[in-house]
Amino acid sequence: MSSPITPKITSLVDLPSSEAKWVKLQKATYIDASGKERVWEIASRKTTGKSGVDAVAMGNIIYHPSKPPSTVLVIQFRPPVNAFTIEWPAGLIDAHESAEEAAVRELYEETGYRGTVISTSPAVSADPGMTSANMKLCMVEVHLNEGEPEPEQHLEDGEEIQRVNVPLSELYERLEEFAKEGYVVAAKLYHWAAGVRYAIDHPELFKKA
Amino acid sequence: MSSPITPKITSLVDLPSSEAKWVKLQKATYIDASGKERVWEIASRKTTGKSGVDAVAMGNIIYHPSKPPSTVLVIQFRPPVNAFTIEWPAGLIDAHESAEEAAVRELYEETGYRGTVISTSPAVSADPGMTSANMKLCMVEVHLNEGEPEPEQHLEDGEEIQRVNVPLSELYERLEEFAKEGYVVAAKLYHWAAGVRYAIDHPELFKKA
Fold it and tell me: Where is coiled-coil annotated (chains A, B) (predicted)?
């Protein structure tokens, strides 16, 4: 990392939901399929907007006239995992903003790239056994011209995000390497890259009848 | 669903970390890359075992002599999202159990299939902006014989899990359909299927130079 200082956690204390701004714990009582009453513990975001969707991630494809097609990943210190993570650019969807608007805005802020959304997933669940948090995956295309300078990021105060461009043909191997080097790779990005790799290695499995 | 009763949440109340068995909220104080002290709110599992990995998911490939290659998905009511979810079989890793052992055990319990782990991912992070929860993806092969009866599940008391076999060639479209029908699709499974689909639709992007 080029950061002059290595971020680190200096204290970790219990947090009552009432004092939390972003997250909360809840206990759900529910009737299961056999009619029995059960309980389940849930971690939720307090910030879920009107759309009911928390976040958007930008599965991005960077096209360049003379460089191999690539994707831009972001590297940042993430206190929840106490490590630098490897993720696709992503962010929370603001109130009154669509997933697609948030995708274009966040990609620009985090990477400087201006992209076009070509598809949007349904709202999918990050970890449905534990949290209500959900997100949409927007696939975004970025078309660069020859000789165009690397764009500037437009980060908010306190955001320290590094970018790294990875050729798509090497994505899976690079994620494996990042993990060996001590970075924490985001599960969703890893699964996309693993799906790509599986389809390339086993094309016969996916042939339509 | 074939369940006689539709599960539903009857109450949702704030839960102090001290009373929770499975999850907790914490406040991390940390030094960022510019040397400034900041705070971050984190939801964690209380159950993370010695291995430091919470869960394993089984990306499974079912081979059959006369049927198209498929994958088995599980459908269950998930209180955190108040809906039936579509996921790959998955479970928490028990203490003193490897990810691979948990994968074989959980696949058998949830689906009845006996599988062989062919690869294991690094520990990847479910939602690193919010939680420390992590998991490994085990790819598992299941080889069935002609005429073999559908195996029985071996569910724990209170587990109500339905299985559905989906041909791999239709996986992405079926996930989109499930979402339209009101099921909540797990983000990791969706990303894998989306990666497969992207590689099939855009093979030129992934060619090695």
Answer: none
pLDDT in tens, B104-138: 999 999 999 999 999 999 999 999 999 999 999 99
ipTM at complex level:
0.95
Q: Rounded to the nearest 5 degrees, what angle is found at the Cα of A189, between the Cα atoms of A71 and A42?
A: 145
Q: Is B26 on the interface with A (CB under 8 A)?
A: yes
Q: Residue B25: how many CA atoms within 13 Å on its side-chain side?
A: 26
Question: Which residues from chain A sit within 8 angstroms of residue B196, using beta carbons?
Answer: 195-196, 198-199, 206
**Helices and strands, number each (H, E), in chain B:** 3, 12
Residue B35 and residue A5: Cβ atoms within 8 Å? yes
CB of A143 within 8 Å of a chain B CB? The answer is no
pLDDT digits over B3-36, tens only?
A: 567 899 999 999 988 899 999 999 999 998 888 9
pTM: 0.95
